[in-house]
Amino acid sequence: MCTRSLPSFDELAFVPFLTPDVKGSKEGRTPHHWFECRDFIRPFVVSLKKKPRSLLRIEALGIAQSDCGFRISVHSPENYIVSGKKRIEYWRGFKPEKLANSVVFFDPDNGFETKTQHGPKWILHAELKDLLSRLPDTSAAIVYQHRPRRTWVDLFDELEEKLNYAHTSVAAYESNLAFLALANNLSTAKRIISAIQRYSEEHPVVRYKLLRNGD
User: Which uninterrupted H or E stretch holds 180?
Assistant: First the structure.
């Protein structure tokens, strides 16, 4: 999104939603060589295993390609997100209103909250609504979504209604995961939709669906 949109975005703000490892769990261990990627991505993924491990290494992606560089910031890279009243502490120091012409990437373990699942592994609609309202009109939000035990059609139908606080929302998805991009206005909506359409055309395994269009 940072490099393919026209005009390009200046910054990627990464919000990682870290949670403690579950002993014995194999979540998040899908081998990276299963996926196609640009040449510089593979050594970057391998570098994340080096100790001491740090999410701040992600900042290096912004200068990995000299012809289309962008800034990267990581929110609260050492802290876990929690549930309940303590959750508000996670957002202290995060200032979306200062992120002009930026992509803000929210990376919850599982995606958007549901009626029965709204703990630390999900992003809450109430908090995303607040953060999106404070984001400059030149910026976009993107949310990672793992495919639950239901069809994409069913989930997207639900999200189309739930995301009524966004001017526009569009999903880029494949069999197991999706990225939901949200914009506050028509101008930014055109940028993200066009970038996702072009990416889908170049990668047939990736499809896209327009959920909400405020125009």
Answer: strand 177-183
